[in-house]
């Protein structure tokens, strides 16, 4: 099954710069995912193809006009089955690994990236949106948020990370009995600038290694993110 993303953005080159690299690229090459980028400026009228205008009621900043976005969405909707509609905005529900898992189960996702002060409210009213925020800070646009969401989702799709690397074992995944941060990792050399790889990891004793990793993950989580343990 291929997950189709339709990403509506005024900066397709910015989005493509990320999706054409590393894991998002591999996911597409494997056929696990397809990216379709749409610039809603292409649907704007007039010589200037304006996508924004001054806010009714006054105030600083510009607002994204409804017409180009409505036209663009209506065009994109003709290209396949009804997508899950995601609007990136600081007003959305908080993006987490659980939300990434939810989205990874969809066949098609449309993502709308805003710019300027925000969307004309009628865009919100036009469709049933899953409004998503990647954190309590304000970005200059939705693109970086859409890319964070896309990256977190595509790496969950079957086969994308390969056999050994399991997304489940990483921080916030389901591995290690739930919501723990990662345990410390080591590779060669066994000693670097006086710092040694813990003996247990060199022992080859799988039971002891698993126990050590779980202890370390719990300790790290307790120290850095005690909020993640609240549900335990
Ligand atoms: N657009 C601007 N800031 C954002 C955020 N924090 N999350 C999602 N979309 C955004």
Name the features.
Alpha/beta knot, binds adenine, 232 residues, two-stranded antiparallel ribbon, alpha/beta, 5-stranded parallel sheet, Trp Operon Repressor, Chain A
Please describe the biggest sheet, giving its number of strands, its sense, and whether it closes into a barrel: 5 strands, parallel
Unreliable residue runs: none
Quaternary state of the chains: single chain
Please tally the helical runs, counting DSSP H or I stretches of 4 or more residues: 8
Mean pLDDT: 94
Would you give an account of this structure?
It is a single chain. The chain is α/β, with parallel strands linked by helices and 232 residues long. The chain folds into two domains: 3-154, 3-Layer(aba) Sandwich (Alpha/beta knot), CATH 3.40.1280; 173-229, Trp Operon Repressor, Chain A (Orthogonal Bundle). Helices cover 33% and strands 18% of the residues. It contains eight helices and nine strands. It has helices at 12-19, 22-29, 66-77, 97-104, 121-126, 143-154, 199-202, 206-224; strands at 3-8, 33-38, 52-53, 63-64, 84-94, 108-113, 130-133, 191-192, 195-196. The strands form three sheets. Strands 2-1-6-5-7 form a five-stranded parallel sheet, sandwiched between helices. The chain has a two-stranded antiparallel sheet with strand order 3-4. Strands 8-9 form a two-stranded antiparallel sheet. Helix 1 (12-19) runs parallel beside helix 6 and helix 4 packs across helix 6. The longest helix has 19 residues, at 206-224. The protein is elongated, with a radius of gyration of 22 Å. It starts with a strand and ends in an 8-residue tail after the last helix. 25% of the residues are buried. Bound molecules: adenine.
């Amino acid at each position: 099954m291929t997950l189709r993303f339709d990403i509506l953005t005024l900066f397709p080159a910015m989005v493509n710069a990320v999706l054409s690299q590393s894991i998002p690229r591999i996911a597409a090459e494997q056929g696990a995912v397809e990216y379709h980028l749409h610039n809603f400026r292409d649907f704007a009228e007039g010589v200037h193809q304006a996508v924004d205008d001054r806010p009714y009621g006054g105030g600083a900043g510009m607002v994204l006009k409804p017409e180009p976005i409505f036209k663009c969405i209506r065009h994109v909707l003709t290209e396949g089955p009804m997508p899950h509609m995601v609007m990136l905005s600081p007003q959305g529900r908080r993006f987490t690994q659980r939300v990434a898992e939810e989205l990874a189960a969809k066949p098609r996702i449309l993502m709308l990236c805003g710019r300027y002060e925000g969307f004309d409210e009628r865009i919100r009213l036009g469709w049933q949106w899953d409004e998503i925020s990647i954190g309590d800070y304000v970005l200059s646009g939705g693109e970086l948020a859409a890319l964070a969401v896309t990256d977190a989702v595509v790496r969950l799709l079957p086969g994308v990370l390969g056999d050994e690397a399991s997304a489940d074992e990483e921080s916030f995944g389901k591995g290690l009995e739930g919501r723990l941060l990662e345990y410390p990792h080591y590779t060669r050399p066994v000693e670097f600038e006086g710092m040694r790889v813990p003996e247990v990891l060199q022992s080859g004793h799988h039971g002891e290694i698993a126990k050590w990793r779980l202890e370390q993950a719990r300790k790290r989580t307790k120290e850095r993110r005690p909020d993640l343990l609240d549900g335990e």
